[in-house]
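Hi R.,

As promised on Friday, here is the backbone we talked about, encoded as structure tokens. Could you run it through your design pipeline when you get a chance and send me back a sequence?
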């Protein structure tokens, strides 16, 4: 995980795209904590290993998981929640956030809504929260959804053109631009290419700003990977 730490999500996403790794980003994910108005928003950086959970509608034949997704977090993990498609409730809120912070978890990525935003944002400096929903919810999960899986593989954004499967232990990185997921066994490869991309883009920027290069010429000269 150390190899990818500090690398922006855009460079990691570009690297995984060029490596032909398929969909490795969480569509529409963006920070809900820190808020846009926070001084921490632009510099937010989330990194940790995934601890997965999946919710389903109450009518689902899947039984409720006997494991609590938050209580089973370990220090440094990122809670990754696959919400039930179409459910109106939130999957993460104030008490869950307080417990996750007490454990020492790194943050949360929620494919669904978040509530208790003021409480969640109390922990913005130590626990970033990313969500795929542009709006929150006043509703908690009970009655509207049930947690049917903790651990293993879950699929986020399942009813979009860009579903992503995230496995327990995958590396999650999030920042102001979005969220990416890196298989742990490919982290070194992804990091190496992402760093090359960073260097090439930095050189292209110098030529554009200082030497009058067009985008076409700068890309032709510098984008070789």
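Update: got your reply. Pasting your designed sequence below so it's all in one thread:
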């Amino acid at each position: 995980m150390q190899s990818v730490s500090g690398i922006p999500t855009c460079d990691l996403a570009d690297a995984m795209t060029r490596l032909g790794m398929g969909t490795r980003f969480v569509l529409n994910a963006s920070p809900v904590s820190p808020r846009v108005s926070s001084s921490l928003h632009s510099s937010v950086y989330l990194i940790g290993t995934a601890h997965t959970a999946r919710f389903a509608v109450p009518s689902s034949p899947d039984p409720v998981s006997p494991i609590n997704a938050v209580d089973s977090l370990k220090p440094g993990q990122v809670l990754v929640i696959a919400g039930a498609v179409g459910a109106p409730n939130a999957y993460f809120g104030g008490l869950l956030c307080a417990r996750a912070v007490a454990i020492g978890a790194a943050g949360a990525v929620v494919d669904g809504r978040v509530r208790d935003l003021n409480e969640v944002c109390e922990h913005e400096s130590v626990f970033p929260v990313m969500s795929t929903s542009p709006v929150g919810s006043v509703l908690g999960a009970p009655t509207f959804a049930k947690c049917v899986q903790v651990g293993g593989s879950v699929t986020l954004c399942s009813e979009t053109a860009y579903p992503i499967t995230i496995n327990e232990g995958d590396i999650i990185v999030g920042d102001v631009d979005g969220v990416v997921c890196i298989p742990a066994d490919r982290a070194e490869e992804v990091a190496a290419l992402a760093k090359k991309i960073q260097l090439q883009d930095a050189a292209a920027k110098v030529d554009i700003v200082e030497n009058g290069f067009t985008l076409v010429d700068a890309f032709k000269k510098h984008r070789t990977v």
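One thing I noticed while checking it: The mean pLDDT is 97.

Thanks again,
M.
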